[in-house]
Design goal:
Pfam families: 2OG-FeII_Oxy, DIOX_N. By secondary structure, the protein is an alpha+beta fold. The chain has a single domain (about 10-310), classed as Sandwich (Jelly Rolls), CATH 2.60.120. About 30% of the residues lie in helices and about 20% in strands. It has helices spanning about 10-15, 20-35, 50-60, 65-70, 120-145, 150-155, 175, 230-235, 300-310, and strands at about 10, 40, 80-85, 95, 100, 160-170, 170, 180, 185, 195-200, 205, 215, 225-230, 245, 260, 265-270, 280, 295. It has an 8-stranded mixed beta sheet with strand order 1-2-13-10-16-6-5-3. A hairpin with an 8-residue loop joins strand 11 and strand 12 (about 215). Helix 2 (about 20-35) packs across helix 5 (about 120-145) and helix 3 (about 50-60) crosses helix 5. The longest helix is centred in the middle third of the chain and has 26 residues, at about 120-145. About 35% of the residues are buried. The chain binds 2-oxoglutaric acid and fe (ii) ion.
């Protein structure tokens, strides 16, 4: 396999191995998050075919007319569910994308199984798999961070994270590469961590060492990538680092010309958030100088950051 910008780990032994094998996978995962903030995961219980089906569903959702999609537009930062058109997100630059946010408890702005054949049922099931995976991944970290093994499953017991479908429309490479434009502007995610599935188009880039030297996270079939997000950085008192990432045009191969139209790109992110009533404060390890962050309430943190991102379409919430 071609070399990757950050480690690729099989999760198989964490799911079904011995205690020793489990700890070995957990340590590798922790090390990758400590050093890079990112990991490729394979053998994690969602097959490449299921991921293909999910992308086919996503395409069916976005293939509808804009008018249809706008009928179910996201309207509240606190609920954060529904459709957002091109231009909705304000992350300090101009993004070229449209999104749909799906949750486990509140999905009033989801098309019915008749409106988009089988969509709601499929997304509920896919969501559940992502949720379970996120609990397993966090449990692996708990093992190495000397937390109770059920620390994160308890923190997520009433949580309603969101599954976000992203569609980056076909666009000229020169537009994406012009100043201030991107498929998605550099940002960090603000939950605990994010599980990300990408199609084969490419363009995701990450800045693992905080040097503004972005490296490609090239798509690899059958894998997902997982990144540390801001709340986990705070909880781990900076031992795990949330890193900037962006989606730009895929790097040119020899046969491609710079005048080219970029094809559509689909990706799906599962943003892992704790239950709204959970407080997150740094766990300080022996030898560290003390907590680097104040305690924050997970629900308020999420609503505040969501509202900031959607400043173009929603009224601001003071934080
Ligand atoms: O599309 C991607 O690969 C990344 C999406 C992303 O970073 C986000 O939605 O926060
Ligand atoms: Fe992101």
């Amino acid at each position: 396999m071609a070399s990757t910008s950050f480690p690729l780990i099989s999760f198989q032994d964490f799911l079904s191995g011995s205690e020793v094998e489990k700890r070995d996978v957990a340590q590798k995962l922790y090390n990758a998050f400590h050093t890079y903030g990112w990991v490729y995961l394979q053998d994690f219980g969602i097959s490449a075919n299921e991921i293909d089906q999910m992308f086919a569903m996503s395409k069916k959702y976005f293939d509808r007319s804009l008018d249809e999609k706008l009928k179910q537009t996201l309207s509240s930062a606190a609920v954060n569910q529904g459709y957002t058109p091109d231009g909705a997100e304000a992350n300090g630059g101009t993004d070229h994308k449209e999104c749909y946010e799906h949750r486990r408890f509140t999905n009033d702005l989801c098309p019915t199984d008749t409106e988009v054949a089988g969509f709601h049922t499929f997304m509920d099931a896919f969501y559940k798999k992502c949720f379970n995976l996120s609990v397993d991944v966090l449990q692996a970290l708990a093992l190495i961070m000397n937390l109770d093994l059920d620390y994160f499953s308890t923190a997520l017991s009433k949580a309603d994270p969101q599954l976000r479908l992203l569609h980056y429309m076909p666009i000229e490479r020169s537009v994406i590469e012009s100043k201030g434009h991107a498929r998605i502007t550099p940002h960090t995610d603000f939950g605990l961590c994010t599980i990300l599935f990408q199609d084969s188009v490419g363009g995701l880039e990450v800045d693992p060492f905080h040097t503004e030297n972005f490296v490609p996270a090239t798509p690899i079939r059958g894998t997902c990538v997982i990144n540390v997000a801001d709340l986990l950085q705070r909880l781990s008192n900076d031992r795990l680092r949330s890193t900037m990432h962006r989606v730009t045009s895929p790097r040119l191969s020899n046969e491609q010309s710079s005048g080219q139209m970029l094809p559509a790109r689909y990706s799906t992110a599962f943003f892992v958030h704790p239950s709204a009533d959970v407080d997150i404060e740094p766990i300080v390890w022996e030898g560290e100088k003390g907590a680097k962050y104040e305690k924050v309430n997970a629900g308020e943190w999420r609503t505040y950051n969501t509202s900031k991102n959607y400043a173009n379409i929603l009224a601001p919430i003071k934080g």
